[in-house]
Amino acid sequence: YGLQKAAEENLYNKLTSEVENVDEETMDKVEEGCACLAPNFTTNILLLSGKGSECLCDIMYATLQHWPHLVYSHGLHQLAAFMLLVITPHRAEHAFWSLLGFLQTKLYPAVAGQVTLGCFIETGVLELLVLQRMPKLSSHLSKMEWHIPHFCSTWYSRVFTSSLQPEVVRAS
């Protein structure tokens, strides 16, 4: 709420109406991200509808324009979809501000909401912890040429959004 009050009036509407400021490659990634959401989102009627999909794209475009140094990732798309479903597409602007607040203050705050960079740091820490506390597992993974960041990087940015149904969060 504080972010929204501190911003210029109607900023969300302005950002969603100026989509031409988003480069073509990022637009393609955003569109692709909508189609590649986790199964619990792709079965949700709100996102399957044209309105829900459009709202999700608007939130993504507005977020990327408002925060130009933010790098698009599918994890970011997952978080935006979760916010949209918890808050409902009828209140897409609130989902946008909630996403920004979450990125800036809760998810990897030391890396300014950069989901990919934050995830890289977290999985690197996990890899060190496994090495220190589970040396046999670490040795086995090393022999298999498996690196923890390769198979659990998406887990960090989507841990709750892929395991909790939005309806459960909304009800609590």
Automatic annotation (TrEMBL):
Gene3D superfamilies: putative rabgap domain of human tbc1 domain family member 14 like domains (1.10.8.270), Ypt/Rab-GAP domain of gyp1p, domain 3 (1.10.472.80). InterPro entries: Rab-GAP-TBC_dom, Rab-GAP_TBC_sf. Residues 1-172 form the Rab-GAP TBC domain. It comes from the Eukaryota. One of its GO terms (molecular function) is GTPase activator activity. Pfam families: RabGAP-TBC. Coiled coil: none annotated. This is Rab-GAP TBC domain-containing protein.
